[in-house]
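User: For my dataset I need records formatted as: sequence, then structure tokens, nothing else. Please produce one.
Assistant:
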Amino acid sequence: MKKIMMMLACSLITMTSMAKTGDKGDIEKVITTLMKGVDHQKGDEILKTFRENATVQATNQGKIISVDYKQFAAMHASKKFGGRDRSVEIVSVDITDGIMATAKVVAQDDKVHYVYYLNLSNTDGKWLIQSFLQHSKLK
């Protein structure tokens, strides 16, 4: 009986661990799609990463400005922003109960250092960005 209980507990721990690993991988794919969309100025790719009514905020000369996520994608698609390949590091992903997550991402090129804080939510097995906060600083 003890062996069966131990095997059952180990199986449960393994399955829980695998689910979290899958979620993290799915979140990292969303982040990678977003970063490539920004770097390659592909508004349609950027839009795929956001939940309807997502918020987008960025620092600008010491102030925080807000734009609609659709405006954010359109600004990149129109080549007003983005268009530079950057190094990107997903610093952390913290998942809560498989339905909410927070990620910190650092991206940089030779001119600008960016820090992104992303809040994501999972609905029907699909992770999307709920809120996006960007801080950028010239090097």
